[in-house]
């Protein structure tokens, strides 16, 4: 049975270093494939995460995501049916997060980490990344003065707009309002 594609282009190619580069909080995100280029099936990005960087607060979002660790050591935390869990992952490991599952990730190594990140379906995650990128005025948020970073209220407003919800530090139900008032 043949598959018929809706795309005018049958092949996509991104050479190393090509594509859109975004600063998403502390990570650098290189867009490799968008949902438009995969007929809405998935989006693929490469992330570069500095030591201690990542999305360290438990959060949820609609698309499922799969991390393929290229370099470094990451720690994934989450809340599953049996309670909290922690997964340590290094080069060559794959970590899959179900849609809507509370999770976080952080580079726990001493050097920058790199991963391929697949969102399925792509949803609006790349738009979310674009908004967070535009909210950062300093090229290096790890050393930027606070006035050059988006404030918590602005960041959580962007999260709300894209159905990304941060869980309170002690766990509980997703909700950005409680976090923003803390």
Summary of the model, kept short:
With 182 residues, the protein is mainly beta. Helices cover 15% and strands 37% of the residues. It has one domain: Sandwich (Jelly Rolls).
Structure write-up:
This protein is mainly β. It has a single domain, classed as Jelly Rolls (Sandwich). 15% of the residues lie in helices and 37% in strands. It is built from 3 helices and 11 strands, in the order E-E-E-E-E-E-E-E-E-E-H-H-E-H. A 6-stranded antiparallel beta sheet has the order 1-2-3-10-5-8, covered by helices on one side.
For this entry, what is the oligomeric state of its chains? single chain
User: What is the 3D form?
Assistant: globular
Proportion of strand residues:
35-45%
| Low-confidence regions | 178-182
Strands ordered across the widest β-sheet: 1-2-3-10-5-8
What would you report as the Rg, rounded to the nearest angstrom?
17 Å
The CATH topology corresponds to Jelly Rolls
- Based on helices, strands and strand pairing, what is the structural class? mainly beta
Helical fraction equals 10-25%
* Residue-averaged pLDDT: 83
How many angstroms separate the termini?
A: 56 Å
CATH architecture field = Sandwich
Q: What is the succession of H and E elements?
A: EEEEEEEEEEHHEH
**Which CATH C-level class is it?**
Mainly Beta
Q: Using DSSP, what is the number of strands?
A: 11
């Amino acid at each position: 049975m043949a598959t018929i594609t809706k795309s005018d282009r049958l092949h996509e190619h991104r050479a190393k270093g090509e594509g859109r580069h975004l600063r998403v909080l502390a990570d650098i995100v290189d867009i490799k494939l968008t949902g438009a280029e995969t007929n809405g099936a998935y989006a693929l990005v490469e992330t570069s995460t500095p030591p201690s960087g990542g999305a360290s607060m438990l959060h949820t979002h609609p698309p499922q995501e799969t991390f393929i660790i290229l370099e470094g050591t990451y720690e994934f935390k989450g809340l599953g049916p049996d309670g909290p869990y922690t997964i340590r992952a290094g080069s060559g490991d794959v970590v899959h997060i179900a849609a809507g599952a509370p999770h976080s990730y952080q580079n726990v190594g001493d050097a920058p980490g790199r991963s391929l990140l697949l969102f399925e379906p792509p949803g609006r995650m790349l738009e979310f990344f674009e908004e967070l990128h535009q909210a950062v005025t300093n090229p290096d948020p790890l050393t930027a003065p606070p006035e050059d970073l988006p404030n918590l209220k602005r960041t959580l407003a962007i999260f709300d707009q894209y159905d990304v919800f941060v869980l309170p530090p002690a766990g509980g139900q997703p909700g950005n309002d409680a976090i923003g008032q803390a």
